[in-house]
Design a protein that fits this description.
The complex is a heterodimer of chains A (about 140) and B (about 180). Chain A has about 140 residues and is mostly helical. Chain A is built from 6 helices and 2 strands. Chain A is about 55% helix and about 5% strand. Chain A has a two-stranded antiparallel sheet with strand order 1-2. The termini of chain A are far apart. The longest helix of chain B is centred in the C-terminal third of the chain and has 19 residues. Chain B has 3 helices and 11 strands. The chains are: A mainly alpha (about 140), B alpha+beta (about 180).
Amino acid sequence: MILNSNGTKNSTLEIMKKSKSTITSWLKEHGDPEIDAFIEKNLAITEKVRLALEAKNWNRVQLAEAMDKSPSEVSKWLTGMHNLTLKSIIKMEQALGVDLIHCEPIKEYEYVFLGMINSTRDLKKKKADYVTSTEMSEYSLAM
Amino acid sequence: MNNFAEIIWVQEFRKVTYYSVSINGEGALYDQFIDKHTVENSEKLNHILAWLEKIGDKIGAYEQYFRNEAETGDARALPPKGRNREPVYVEFSEVTGKNENTPNNLRLYCFRANESVVFLFNGDVKTADTAQNCDNVREHFKTANTLSKLLDQAFVNKDIRWKDDFSNIIVEDDFKLEWD
């Protein structure tokens, strides 16, 4: 409880009346994880757009103009509930110059350091043979 | 004054605290909304509540995320939309058997006091072009506008005061909104 300047009591959470259920308790009991993930990802994208607009000092009308779209269409995209298409996302990325969805690059090679081996003449020959054989296989794969 | 409303706490997240009101000693409007639509429109309700949770926890109640429903007061509604366009979301269609973009016509009327405080009222499935022409939502829409105007005035009169950082509100124990 907080006392204000004229000495009367102010409501705090301890004494204020509460609703029967909270938002979180409803979602725990009835919520669909797929809807939850949809809203979370959607809002993450729209929030990135909002911050990118702030950084460029643009409003939504300027973004719409840059994409040759109507402002109302763009407003709908940025509500956090619209089912954005990949095409719409790419359009916004191009206009804003930011990555809205980050995808891991596809790995072509992965080098793993396996440790040192004290060399002998025999091992040196084996190592040289191995390098030659892998180079040849890479060459044949490239062909 | 024939009517009164008390402020009811719903939930506090990191970025937004949600409140509701109870009118003339009845249950909170938010509870009435939940009770009805958990049964009748569970999936649509799920979208709105998941959205409220994410906005509350991670983002804040920015204006772009609310639908303007001002008439006599500064009421807002959820879900949000682009101007003159229906919002769409993914819902399973019984007709086609697929997940499709579907207008979410379930409205939850509310009053966005600032980015940190939102009052949730009641709502229903809107079936006409305007709230005034829809038998389902007309009363909720009118009530939301009445309450929004009263809340706005209560902030002006300092009956509801802001914490120093505007992150939440302070009201006296016996505070009530009153109107004819």
